[in-house]
């Protein structure tokens, strides 16, 4: 099974915090995680940028402002890479620092109390909504 509950939080004008829960089932001891990300919708995993993490979170910096990032995560062990999570995406908006819009088709996001949630229909995706964080002290 892939890592679960992938969460994205815009932490600055060009930075993003990514966190997740471990897979429900593993085929051995997890040695680490791979975080795949891109700004290009439909890009295959093999063409995405990859960062490794020894634990269940990572902070990406020096990202493009005003860009949507598409993120997925996999665990790996001595036998190789495990399944990859579903894509989750976030819009990093420079004019409203911290007000990135997190997209999650299955509404599996755990939004903590620091979020002001607003919903907006996305024209081509009637079952997809935007979640936004109201403020950010890092800007």
UniProtKB/TrEMBL annotation:
The keyword Repeat applies. Residues 2-96 form the Fibronectin type-III domain. It comes from the Eukaryota. SUPFAM superfamilies: Fibronectin type III (SSF49265). Keywords: Repeat. SMART domains: FN3. Pfam families: fn3. This is Fibronectin type-III domain-containing protein. It comes from Dibothriocephalus latus. The lineage of its organism: Eukaryota, Metazoa, Spiralia, Lophotrochozoa, Platyhelminthes.
């Amino acid at each position: 099974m892939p890592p679960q509950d992938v969460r994205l939080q815009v932490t600055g004008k060009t930075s993003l915090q990514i966190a997740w829960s471990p897979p429900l089932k593993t085929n051995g001891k997890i040695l680490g995680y791979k975080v795949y990300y891109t700004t290009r919708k439909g890009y295959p995993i093999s063409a995405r940028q990859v960062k490794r993490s020894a634990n269940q979170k990572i902070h990406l910096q020096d990202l493009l402002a005003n860009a949507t990032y598409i993120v997925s995560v996999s665990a790996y062990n001595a036998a190789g890479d495990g399944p990859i999570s579903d894509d989750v995406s976030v819009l990093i908006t420079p004019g409203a620092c911290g007000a990135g819009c997190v997209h999650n088709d299955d509404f599996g996001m755990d939004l903590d109390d620091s979020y002001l949630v607003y919903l907006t229909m996305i024209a081509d995706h009637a079952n997809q909504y935007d979640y936004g964080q109201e403020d950010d002290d890092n800007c």
